[in-house]
Specification:
Shape: globular
Helix content: 40-55%
Order of helices and strands: HHEHEHEEHEHHEHHHE
Number of strands: 7
Radius of gyration: 18 Å
Low-confidence stretches: none
Structural class: alpha/beta
Mean pLDDT: 95
Distance between the termini: 39 Å
Largest sheet: 7 strands, mixed
């Protein structure tokens, strides 16, 4: 898996989150499940004091390289979104771009966000929506893996208004806005598919599970059809629309 390579495709959403939360020089900011820091780095570029946290510290090395190239410094902390190692009310802002949504215990992760954000503090969380290409992709993967449903719902629950309100309303005044990210690849769609198959975590895990069953090629064929149906490019390259929900809020 190479999350940092995939992070290129969602870089702009980190800027959306940092701007939506109005990160600035007076703010201490936590990026939850930060990966290699696409939101954290862009918050730091706005002058904030930023902590990037993630359960996978292997991502911090490419994140530090990105931060250095961007001319900013930030703190990198290994942390589980369900058990953040920070004091209560210790951040002015919490961000997450396609990160916290994958925490298995959704209500626990939501409670941790509420715990570490100060009263009057802000959040900006970006999560994939169940509709559209990304939603169909996750449904396709789940259908092939035939895994039991998550206890609190699929990760894309965070990408629904009902889910966001259910998880966050107790602690935040929540606002929701649907957005679309167009993921572009300057090559034919089949090459973009091959690129993601080799690097994108859910695809790599699907291959590990389906390969021994002799179903990997079947899955790839179904996915290629899905991607080609959603491709918006008309010049032989790839452009996939990815719908996400931007959730902003103020800590009560």
């Amino acid at each position: 898996m190479d999350f940092d390579a995939i992070a290129e495709f969602i870089w702009e959403v980190g800027g959306v989150a940092a701007q939506a939360a109005e990160c600035g020089p007076s703010d201490r900011v936590l990026d939850i499940a930060a990966g290699s820091g696409n939101a954290a780095i862009q918050a730091a570029q706005r002058g904030a004091d930023v902590v990037a946290s993630d359960l996978t510290p292997e991502l911090f090395a490419p994140g530090r390289r990105r931060a250095e190239a961007a001319g900013v410094e930030l703190e990198w902390v290994e942390a589980d979104a369900e058990d953040l190692p920070f004091e209560d009310a210790s951040f002015d802002v919490a961000l997450s771009t396609f990160g916290i949504m994958f925490a298995p215990r959704q209500s626990v992760a939501a409670a941790e966000v509420a715990r570490v954000v100060k009263p009057g503090g802000r959040i900006a969380l970006c999560s994939w929506q169940p509709a559209g290409f990304i939603g169909e992709m996750f449904k396709t993967i789940a259908g092939f893996l035939d895994a039991p449903p998550p206890v609190e719902g699929p990760p894309v629950r965070w990408g629904t208004e009902d889910g966001a309100h259910a998880l966050l309303d107790d602690a935040f005044d929540v606002r929701c806005e649907s957005r679309t990210l167009v993921q572009r690849f300057d090559a034919p769609m089949d090459e973009m598919t091959d690129y993601f198959m080799a690097r994108f975590g859910p695809m790599v895990m699907a291959r590990r599970a389906l390969g021994p069953q002799g179903r990997w090629e079947e899955f790839v064929a179904v996915y290629r059809d899905l991607a080609n149906r959603w491709n918006q490019a008309e010049d032989g390259t790839a452009a996939l629309p990815a719908a996400y929900l931007l959730v902003t809020g103020t800590r009560k």
